[in-house]
Amino acid sequence: LMTPFIMIGGIIGGVFTATEAAATTAVYSLIVSMFVYREIGWRDLPRILRVSALTTATVGFIIACSTVVNYVLAREQIPQHLAEALLGFSTDPYVILTLINVLMLILGCFMEGMAIMILTVPVCLPVIQQLGIDPVHFGVIVVMNLMVGLLTPPFGMGLFVVAKIGNVPFEVLAREILPFIPLMILVLAICTYFPDLVLFFPKLFLD
User: Fold this and answer.
1) SS3 content of the chain, % helix, strand, coil (to 5)
2) Quick check: bond before 154 cis, omega within 30?
3) pLDDT band of 189, cuts 50, 70, 90
4) CB 3 within 8 A of CB 25
5) 155 DSSP assignment
6) What is the pLDDT of residues 47-86, one digit of tens each?
7) Measuring CA to CA, which residue among 199, 195, 192, 196 is closest to residue 99?
8) How far apart are CA 128 and CA 134, in angstroms?
9) What predicted TM-score, i.e. pTM, was given to this entire model?
10) Is residue 74 within 8 Å of residue 82, measured between CB atoms?
């Protein structure tokens, strides 16, 4: 029960980064499992480490392959061309945000989140600022799009990780996740068209 408090509290409090939070909670869980609940013994550690190594290696190979795809798309400047074409379509802020959502949702099906952000945000941000859209609102929209991309077939990174850990065929998991995608897009749309919902808490702290 302390795991989410350590992870979220540590990140929000600036104690450690997201990666360090994951490592910290893993060590905490291991200590609790071994010395408090005594569900794991020293003899179990080699098997646990072997399974962890295999899972990490599988995800690593997937990331390596997706990096090649990212390189080709970045080399051809496809995300930039798409962004510039969409941003030149209208001057209405909500139309632009809708087009950015469409762009990032499409790219999320084929590219890794960090690559999408690096390639598209520098192109979109100046236009966003010119249209008077709050950068915090835009940042939340970008992150939500990337999170949806993690669960979007055919190259959703989150799907590959869950399929490996749960020992579930990828095509089965992808089929089961489909009903949830419209709900995630609905939440994304609400946050896009009702910025006060997104900016309520930031304004409280800023004011």
Assistant:
1) 80, 0, 20
2) yes
3) very high
4) yes
5) S
6) 988 988 887 887 777 777 777 777 787 788 777 776 677 6
7) 192
8) 8
9) 0.69
10) no
